[in-house]
Amino acid sequence: MGGATPQATTILVVDDNEANRLLARETLEDEGYLVLLATGGEEGIAVFEKEQPDCVLLDVRMPGVDGFAACERIRALPTGADVPILFLTALRDVDTFDRALRSGGDDFLTKPVRPTELVVRVQTALKLRRLGAELREQLGVLKEQRDAMFRLQLQKERLSAFVVHDLKNPVNSMDLHAQLLLRDKNLPESARESATQIRIEARQLNRMIMNLLDVSKGDEGKLVAKLDEIDLRALTDEVVTELTPNAHARGVRLTMDLQVETVRADADLLRRLLGNLVENSTRYAPKGTTVTIGIKTVGGSVELRVADQGAGIPIEMREKVFDPFVQVDSGEKFVAHGSRGLGLTFCRLAVEAHGGKIWVEDASPGAVFCVGWPVS
Fold first, then answer.
1. Is 209 domain-assigned?
2. Degrees (nearest 5) of the Cα angle 150, 151, 157?
3. Which of 225, 251, 281, 283 is close enough to 266 for a disulfide, judged by CB 3.0 to 4.6 Å?
4. DSSP H helical segments within 40-132, as ranges?
């Protein structure tokens, strides 16, 4: 960051977790700040009264005097009215956010806090303190708007969690009942085809629900890959078996070209990543064409490629297709790949969780979705 902050600027960090205190101290001292530490709310208030710091970082959940109570008591002190107080908490919900504001907090950061973000927020809080009254009033309005937007974001996350929880059970139940029907040897062929289609659509819907959940996790930096040794052929066979009926219904053939047998990856994320890419390519592949799944090693990376023979993706859209709800528009109708929801957005986040990258190449004709991640 290039800290040009005067040494006299003092930051008080109040947190009962030693690792959190040390991380905050190292981050802020690298920027030239003088950092004071306190292990709890009562101690933090005492240090504040004695040292008169320029800014306070407060953990929310602490034994004894918690962050909210400490904030209220600091605000009640003669010199505590205008000192910036930033809350640090692992509790990412509307109630915690509202209570932080009511107790007198100026800002709200959720753990794990990225060092760069912590420095920027502290610098901003200190700059606001130095501004004149008129500018502070104007910035107060902006702060209210920012707080309202953040509160809306938390409400959206809560809604997403409710949607995922409430939809998973009935979707899984649909799939289970379809399986029970398919076990009936006397089931007419037409009913068997319908039950099979119900299973296909239920699994696709379940994949969309999990995409929603994981995109929310990705936005919070909480999507983490749990690496294990994966049998690529078995995993790919499973995905192809699931998606083949839908591909055949569209007149599209699925083929595999696997040059790698095993890889270290998160099995669930990789399965849904591949499923999303194949389903997406199948949707835009013309009738009578082939979607090919290829996996090989390139240097020190594993490269997964899903290629179709459709209309392709214009160069200027190849980054945007991984944004939520983006489609490629020809002007009159959609002719190429587009993330009708969050499928390709999830793919990007899943790849990044593996330390890799995703991109699009031209298949001439068609598009190739390429995924590369390092061999662990």
1. yes
2. 90
3. 225
4. 41-51, 67-76, 94-102, 115-130
Last residue of a domain, one of 180, 198, 219: 219
Q: Are 193 and 252 in the same domain? A: no
Q: At which of 85, 108, 130 does a domain end?
A: 130
Two tokens, residue 76:
């009640």
pLDDT in tens, 131-145: 755 566 677 777 788
Q: What pairs with residue 36 in β-bridges?
A: 12
* Strands ordered across the beta sheet of 357-362: 253-258, 290-298, 301-307, 367-374, 357-362
Kindly give the pairing relationship between strand 228-231 and strand 262-265: antiparallel
Query: Nearest 5°: phi and psi at 208?
Result: -65, -40
Residues of the chain with pLDDT > 90, as a percent, come to 43
pTM of the model: 0.51
What is the per-residue DSSP string for 295-326?
EEEETTEEEEEEE--SS---GGGTTGGGSTT-
Q: Which of 75, 67, 54 is CA-nearest to residue 11? A: 54
Rg of the chain over Cα atoms, rounded to whole angstroms, equals 26
Q: Which helix (H) or strand (E) holds 86?
A: strand 85-89
**CB contact set of 299 (below 8 Å; sequence gap of 6+):** none
Domain membership flag for residue 322: yes
Neighbours of 196 (CB within 10 A): 15
| Residue 253 one-letter amino acid | R
Could you tell me the residue range of the domain that residue 68 belongs to? Answer: 10-130
HSE, side-chain direction, 13 A CA sphere, residue 201: 10
Instruction: State the amino acid at position 338 in one-letter form.
Output: G
Please tell me the predicted confidence (pLDDT) of residue 222.
62
Residue type, 295: I
Q: Are 247 and 364 found together in one domain?
A: yes
